[in-house]
Amino acid sequence: MGQMENLPRNVAALIYKKQYWRTPAFDKVAQIEPILAEELFDTGVNMGTSTAIGLLQRAHYVRLAEARPAQEAFLYG
């Protein structure tokens, strides 16, 4: 591969759009929760899309456990 400085901006944008927006389906999330989708995109770029999705799932399970304390045991596997 060549130097990143030689990569045209529009090509970089296409890579980001495909790899960090469409492939993990954050574009579909954006249709319902645009701010959440932006956070997922940012986290996906910086930490990987799998990590972004995992953090969202974890937050969801924590919220469920807070609403129903009997579900807390499922947070730990």
Q: How does this structure look, described?
A:
There is one protein chain. The chain is mainly α and 77 residues long. The protein has one domain. The chain is 70% helix and 0% strand. It contains four helices and no strands. The model has no long low-confidence stretch (mean pLDDT 90).
Task: Summarize this structure as a short list of keywords or feature phrases.
single chain; 4 helices; elongated; mainly alpha; 77 residues
Please outline what is shown here.
The protein is 70% helix and 0% strand. The protein is an all-alpha fold and 77 residues long.
Query: What is the averaged pLDDT score?
Result: 90
Element-by-element helix/strand order: HHHH
Describe the main β-sheet briefly: none
Please state roughly what percent of the residues sit in beta strands, choosing from under 5%, 5-15%, 15-25%, 25-35%, 35-45% or over 45%. under 5%
Count the helices. How many?
A: 4
Question: What would you report as the Rg, rounded to the nearest angstrom?
Answer: 16 Å
What is the tally of beta strands?
0
Low-confidence segments: none
Number of domains: 1
End-to-end Cα distance, whole Å, is 42 Å
Dominant shape: elongated
- The portion of residues assigned to helices is over 70%
Structural class: mainly alpha
